[in-house]
Amino acid sequence: MHDHGWIPTDIECLNVLNAADWNRFFSPGSIDALLAEHVWEHLTPSEGACAAALCFKYLRHGGYLRLAVPDGLHPDPHYREWVRAGGTGAGAHDHKVLYTCITFSALFEQVGFCCELLEYFDEQGIFHDKVWSIQDGTIRRSKRFDERNRDGQLHYTSIAMDAHKI
Predict the structure, then answer these.
(1) Which parts of 3-124 fold into alpha helices (H)?
(2) What are the average pLDDT values for consecutive 10-residue runs of the chain, which has 166 residues?
(3) Per-residue DSSP letters for 114-141?
(4) Is 65 exposed, middle or buried (0-12, 13-18, 19+ CB in 10 A)?
């Protein structure tokens, strides 16, 4: 499921780690926006840095990458067990890292992005969120859209972030 105007891809079409895949579809500096929901936790930290650098290369100045990953500072231990590397949740067997708002933004800042956190838990377990536009990319596993949060409790959230190429 994807929003109108967005082109969905998967690893078979565009491997974020493969420069040849990027070159097949895009020119450096030609992309306005990218969306990657629950992708980076499937990459090792070094692969994540490589993928971030490739996104930076192909985004135009003023472009952005909207991202979401499981939140390593979520205060619910059951959530953290569900999403951790090798955790019990669906797909977690392939998770390589569990990010926090600090480690995730640092990964993108190291390749030149300016990061804006949209949703996240801080080190004290306090949830922070900003109003963000779905036209800029919908994060389905978020406070606003994840059905598991419909009772008013934050059962499933993500670190949601925009990484801007200034």
Answers:
(1) 19-25, 45-58, 77-83, 101-109
(2) 72 90 95 96 97 98 98 97 95 96 98 98 97 95 96 96 98
(3) EEEEEEEE-TTS-EEE----GGG---SS
(4) buried
pLDDT computed for residue 124 by the predictor:
97
* 33 within 8 A of 131, measured Cβ to Cβ: no
* CB atoms inside a 10 Å sphere around CB 95: 20
Token pair recorded at residue 102: 């600090």
Residue carrying the six token digits 């994540």: 48
Note the pLDDT of residue 13.
Answer: 83
The span from the CA of 131 to the CA of 119, in Å, is 9
Sheet of strand 114-121, all strands in order from the earlier edge strand to the far edge: 31-37, 59-70, 158-164, 114-121, 127-129
Residue 162, φ and ψ in degrees, nearest 5? -105, 130
B/e letters for 26-40, b = 16+ CB within 10 Å, e = fewer, are eeeeebebbbbbbbb
Do 55 and 164 touch, CB atoms closer than 8 A? no
